[in-house]
Amino acid sequence: MTWQILVLNGPNLNMLGTREPEVYGSDTLADIVADVSAYAVERGAEIRDVQSNSEGALVDALHDAKAWADGVVFNPGAYTHTSVALRDAIASIELPVVETHLSNVHAREEFRHTSMISAVCLGVVGGFGRNSYLLALDGLVRHLSA
Ligand code: DQA
Q1: Model pLDDT for residues 112-137, shown as the tens digit of each residue
Q2: What confidence tens digit (pLDDT) does each residue in 38-69 have?
Q3: Residue 126 CA: which ligand 1 atom is closest?
Q4: Mutation test residue for ligand 1: of 51, 103, 125, the one with most atoms within 8 Å of CB
Q5: SS3 for 115?
Q6: CA 80, CA 36: separation in Å to the nearest integer?
Q7: How many whole angstroms separate alpha carbon 58 and alpha carbon 34?
Q8: How many of the other CB atoms lie within 10 Å of CB of 2?
Q9: In angstroms, what is the span from residue 1 Cα to ligand 1's centroid?
Q10: Which of 100, 116, 120, 134 has the most CB within a 10 Å radius?
Q11: Average pLDDT of 9-16?
């Protein structure tokens, strides 16, 4: 069984590499996706990745995942803290979704301490830089295989 996983990234994550490297590191999103892709093979999974700066496109990608994916690794960027639409989309697809952040949002500004989506996610991983994505994928595959 090869698990099919959507790796979904929200706004401004296309700017990784040059975006606030002191917070997010100097890897590009392409570097991270390549890493997750290689790790997925080791873990018996295959990934497709989507990045969008638009809330609606992220909702569409989640809806679309219902048709083909077993689970989702999702970094919604700033929409984490604001988007009821993403929360409702996650609840509607009935797939396990792991909320994933490069930074430890709880060690940052107060407005980042609230997540609109955590309550409808399988789990939350944050604070480990690019490794957050690998840990999220590992948790998801373990959940699916259990
Ligand atoms: C982020 C944390 C969010 O607060 C922020 O808006 C991002 C990135 C992270 O990966 O640490 O864009 O999701």
Answers
A1: 999 999 999 999 999 999 999 999 99
A2: 999 999 999 999 999 999 999 999 999 999 99
A3: 11
A4: 103
A5: coil
A6: 21
A7: 21
A8: 11
A9: 32
A10: 100
A11: 97
Rounded distance from Cα 103 to ligand 1 centre (Å): 7
Q: 8 by DSSP, 3-state: which?
A: strand
**What local confidence, expressed as pLDDT, does residue 104 receive?**
98
What DSSP line would sit under 49-112, residue for residue? EEE-S-HHHHHHHHHHHHHH-SEEEEE-GGGGGT-HHHHHHHHHHT--EEEEESS-GGGS-GGG
Diameter of the chain by CA atoms? 42
* Contacting residues for 142 by C-beta, under 8 A, at least 6 apart: none
10 Å CB burial of residue 111 (0-12, 13-18, 19+) is exposed
Q: Which tokens in the block code for residue 59? A: 């909702």
Q: Which residues contact ligand 1 via a Cβ below 6 A?
A: 12, 75, 77-78, 80, 101-103, 105, 112
- pLDDT bin (cut points 50, 70, 90) of residue 1 is confident
Q: Cα–Cα distance between 58 and 84 in angstroms, integer?
A: 12
What is the distance of C-alpha 127 from the center of its chain? 13
